Amino acid sequence: MSKRFSRMAALSLTLPLIAATFASCGDDGTYSGVNSNSNYTYNYKTEAEENYSPNTVNPNEEYNYVEEGGFKDPKAEPLSTFSADVDTASYTNARRMLNEHKRVEPDSVRVEEYINYFDYKYADPEEGKVFGEYIELADCPWNPETKLMMIGLQGKRIEQEELPSSNLVFLIDSSGSMASYNKLPLVQTAFSMLTDNLTENDRISIVTYAGSSETVLEGASGDDKDEITEALGSIMASGGTNGEGGIETAYALAEKYFIEGGNNRVILATDGDLNIGKCSEDELTKLIEKKRESGVYLSVLGFGTGNIKDNKMEALADNGNGNYSYIDSVSEARRVLVEEMGGTLFTIAKDVKIQVEFNPATVESYRLIGYDNRLMEAEEFYDDSKDAGEVGAGHAVTALYEVKVNEPNVKGTYHGIELEFATESTTEASSDNGRDELIKLSVAYKDIDTDEEVYSANLYGMEKYNTVPTQGIKLAGAVAEFAMLLKGSEYAGTSSFDYVRETALAIGGSNEKINELGDLAQKASSLY
After folding, report:
1. How far is Cα 186 from Cα 183, in angstroms, rounded to an integer?
2. Long-range CB contact pairs, 413-418, < 8 A, 24+
3. What does the alpha-carbon distance between residue 396 and residue 389 come to, in Å, rounded to a whole number?
4. Does residue 359 contact residue 406 with C-beta atoms inside 8 Å?
5. Range list of H helices, 65-162
6. Is residue 347 helix, strand or coil?
7. Exposed (0-12), middle (13-18) or buried (19+): which is 125, by Cβ within 10 Å?
8. Looking at 10-19, 302-311, 490-499, which range is the least confident one?
9. Can you give the C-alpha Rg of the chain in angstroms?
């Protein structure tokens, strides 16, 4: 038996024991389930937990409320500007809730993360380009008076052998709150799978934090898989949660082993329950904003149930030039860290911003579906100091607009930006400008190597309308309906879980993700 196989076998046997040993350990390291010194058990619950319904999530979980955007008049607001987003945590977190037979917490629903969880098979960009664009218009399935507009940006793919070397720091929350089977043991399994794909040119460090931070492994070669796996298996959960100390240590190691032109990244694995040092959302945001100036990126992996602090984890990833994924299973860990490793770990464009200008002569009103906490002012599109989303190799960004198109039937400015279609910004009805395009799509991002701002713009019209929608826009529409229903959106119209399930079954085929969407819609229909 090889040494490598022995290490993995030992780890696989150890993880369930770790879970069982620490399953009752609380945030402060004290036991809250089985009393180890007696033969009786007790269940301690907070006042909030005593009052919540069995089919709703634990009230100790934290999510931010963000007001849902409504319809805009392009004569008054011709420009829609937002930061790109490739996070998927909101969808997989909802999957966890539904699989636990719980109603999904409405504030946890970020519609764009549901949409971006799925692959719409966009074509690769042209040679030499970072992004390719896809536009489609079809009848809106939940509102007969509007159209559904799908905008897709496909990032260039990079072959595994062409990826730059990685300097990774696994920053692992080892506090008492991480003791349950779906937290620390799953973290260890996830990072072990990632380790299998490392090379001798990669550098790995491991930092844990509980009451204080500890360096478990420093600057190991990616070829030292036994050493990395053994270090992961040695971690146990107990104590408080000093996330600030862990972040400081992790970034210091990332800077120490910094690879010029490489992928320098801290990967934080946590439930987000920080309670020592700087632990508020605002304090963590300011801390990470300073750290990102080092050129080190931050990815956040959320784990577990019961006390998830989704608001803190999203803020960390958004402000650390990284992405946020929620890991609810071994298969999801494999998807994020193995199958989509390039997109998760290797950034191809920084501060990606999207701006859509709507032609008031052809569009009566429009509504961006989701991205409510990623909206930007129109003038920020051209401000290269404004932070925005990062996109990884092979990742795609998808946005949906609900659009009311005018019956068929000069330029000015808005916030100082020259417009393509209008002479001025006014709420008065505009005269026919002689233009039949629907939108001008503009994309801005920073080049990963030079840090220079890159801009592009293209015009699209009714030539993108399909009387028979493609499977891609049908899937995206069904996913949007699913999210709106779970969120309780006032714009859900005729949406139904039955439609989501039937659509998923009709187009799923052998696609496990799409088939699972149908199963989740079925579970949701029994809870709502």
Report:
1. 5
2. 414/77, 414/78, 414/79, 414/378, 415/79, 415/377, 415/378, 415/379, 416/379, 417/79, 417/378, 417/379, 417/381, 417/382
3. 12
4. no
5. 89-99, 111-115
6. strand
7. middle
8. 10-19
9. 24
* pLDDT of 311 strictly over 80: yes
Cβ count within 10 A of residue 527: 15
Report pLDDT for 238: 87
Share of residues in the chain with pLDDT > 90 (%): 67
Amino acid code (one letter) for 500: V
Q: For the chain, what's the residue count?
A: 528
**Sign of the torsion angle spanned by Cα atoms 134, 455, 111, 74:** negative
Is the pTM of the predicted complex or chain greater than 0.70? yes
Tell me: pLDDT of 96 over 90.
yes
| Residue 518: both structure tokens together | 């149908």
At 454, list the tokens: 């890159």
Alpha-carbon distance of 360 to 471, in angstroms, equals 29
The pLDDT assigned to 259 comes to 95
Question: How does the average pLDDT of the chain come out, rounded?
Answer: 86
- Could you read off the pLDDT of 182-224 as tens digits, one per residue? 999 999 999 999 999 999 999 999 999 987 889 999 999 999 9
464-473 pLDDT tens trace: 999 999 999 9
Q: How far apart are CA 179 and CA 207, in angstroms?
A: 17
Report the SS3 class of residue 280.
coil
Taking the CB of residue 433, how many other CB atoms lie within 10 A of it? 16
User: How do beta strands 324-327 and 297-303 pair?
Assistant: parallel
β-bridge partners, 83: 353
* Cα–Cα distance for residue pair 518/508, rounded to 1 Å: 9
Neighbours of 126 (CB within 10 A): 9
CA distance 319 to 331: 27
Strand partners, 307: none
Selection from 224, 183, 496 nearest residue 309 by Cα: 183
Query: Is residue 42 scored above 90 in pLDDT?
Result: no
Task: Give per-residue pLDDT as tens, 259-303.
Answer: 998 999 999 999 877 665 555 667 777 888 888 888 899 999 999
DSSP 8-state class, residue 68: P
Phi, psi of 219 (to 5 degrees): 60, 35
**Whole-number Cα distances in Å, 179 to 17, 25, 277:** 11, 6, 21
Classified as helix, coil or strand, 315 is helix
What DSSP letter does each residue of 99-115 carry, written as one string? HTT-BPPGGG--HHHHH
